[in-house]
Amino acid sequence: MFDCGYVPGKSYTLKIDASHSGSQRIGFEITAENNPSGKIGTFAVINDKLTQFSNDSNAVTHNSKGTIATNDSISWQLNWEAPGSGSGDVTFYLAVNATNGDLSSSR
To answer: What Rg, from alpha-carbon coordinates, does the chain have?
Structure first.
């Protein structure tokens, strides 16, 4: 967990690197939340060939081409614009899933 703070209204570029031995496909989804107000800040897709909006544009996830791992790893970038002043703490939630890509439920 990081406690770095943010500058209200500033845009930040987030880079997600993921790797797992033997993975052919790797996916992710990220969102930012503030309790009790829910989703906070504004995401922007940088590369629509790899990423797309999800959850009514309150999150960013991979698209089908954005899951293809090279040498067991992949990276994605996206922008997040911080909310206005007085918005309180922000928590980013990130899920990453790595698979062998054989479309079966067992490895």
So the answer is: 15
CA–CA distance, 107 with 104 (Å, rounded to integer): 7
Q: Are 26 and 69 in contact (CB under 8 A)?
A: yes
Sign of CA dihedral 62, 63, 68, 70: negative
pLDDT tens profile 56-85: 999 999 999 999 999 999 999 999 999 999
Report the predicted TM-score, pTM, of the whole model to 2 decimal places.
0.89
- Type of residue found at 47: N
Strands (E), 1-107: 11-19, 25-34, 38-39, 42-45, 51-54, 59-62, 73-81, 91-99
